[in-house]
Amino acid sequence: MILIDAVxxxxxxxxxxxxxxxxxxxxRSITVLVGPSGCGKTTTLRMVNRMxxxxxxxxxxxxxxxxxxxxxSLRRSMGYVIQHxxxxxxxxxxxxxxxxxxxxxxxxxxxxxxxxxxxxxxxxDPALAKRYPYQLSGGQQQRVGVARALAAxxxxxxxxxxxSAVDPVVRKGLQDELLRIQADLGKTIVFxxxxxxxxxxxxxxxxxxxxxxxxxxxxxxxxxLSAPADEFVEDFLGVDRGIRHLSFFTxxxxxxxxxxxxxxxxxxxxxxARTIPQSAYVxxxxxxxxxxxxxxxxxxxxxxxxLVPHGHAFVxxxxxxxxxxxxxxxxxTGWAVAVDxxxxxxxxxxxxxxxxxxxxxxxxxxxAATRVAAGSSGEGARG
Length: 383
Ligand SMILES: Nc1ncnc2c1ncn2[C@@H]1O[C@H](COP(=O)(O)OP(=O)(O)OP(=O)(O)O)[C@@H](O)[C@H]1O
Prior knowledge:
The chain is α/β, with parallel strands linked by helices and about 375 residues long. The protein has two domains: about 1-245, Rossmann fold (3-Layer(aba) Sandwich); about 245-383, CBS-domain, CATH 3.10.580. It has 15 helices and 16 strands. The strands form four sheets. The chain has a six-stranded mixed beta sheet with strand order 6-7-8-3-9-10, sandwiched between helices. The chain has a four-stranded antiparallel beta sheet with strand order 2-1-4-5, with helices on one face. It has a three-stranded mixed beta sheet with strand order 11-12-13. Helix 5 packs across helix 6 and helix 14 packs antiparallel against helix 15. The longest helix is centred in the C-terminal third of the chain and has 23 residues, at about 350-375. The protein is globular. Adenosine-5'-triphosphate binds near residues 43 and 194.
């Protein structure tokens, strides 16, 4: 665990960049520092690897003051990724990634093997190993930056706006890759961003900082969205807070009906038998059970073959109630389509049913929060 204990940083010109910040960064999880420009995020991150020394307070790594460790060994236990990757322009990709292993005295061949292995892990074609950074796209360079930080397998990763300089699509890919890598490797990651959506997507814990380097709130993302500490945090979270919070509620227990699902070759009788009073439509599937679209039940029973696109389906259990609601809202019939992991239709749900599930999830979360507050449960509050 990294403990940032009442740490302040004042610069000689009188600027207070960080003001008595206390944070416990849990092991093997992603802690995000987020806040507006100039609120002290980078300064905090750099105090963790001693690129900046605090004016007051102390930082402990696994219970030991980081000032008691030689700075080189401290930094080698902490991979560091920055915006624009910061690669060495005159070194090949493989040599960039192998930098720290080589510094640690690894054989060239061993370091190269490690570099190639890491390229695959971060989603880079090993054929790029001999190229130079300028021959790679911005997104590819960021992946190299992550691979380089992971090269000596440090327990801690410090990431300073690593994905800010790439377009939204590439950025989403990099975020997904980081979550995949983290699921495999379980590093202790401190991640700086000014993007609240990125913080909510990536963070197990999120620290919202305000100007003057003060901590506004430190909580799991779900708690931030459901209970922002004050107006500043609420404003920073932006609009759609309620809708975004639904991403933390699973669709697993959602009540579905499979009745209005009919196969492409269903007879008029079968269609009539499967039509439900609440809807004039049936969902037509192919022979493998994958949804093709909605059909007006009465017309189809009389031989009509018109299908209305069903929009996006949600994967039951894997996707959230936000995804289920989105599916219903975008559906021309007002009914969401649920599929299994193979894409086969397993049922449909009306908007009202999803709304009831949302109310139940909120009530359940409220109960869990009360239990935690009362100290009668060891459960975390997330999701
Ligand atoms: N060397 C310095 N001397 C004086 N003030 C500094 C120095 N470095 C940073 N600051 C100030 O400290 C404050 C915090 O800076 P920091 O870079 O940590 O913010 P940040 O939250 O990372 O910002 P951004 O999102 O814009 O990168 C800012 O007001 C900045 O101007």
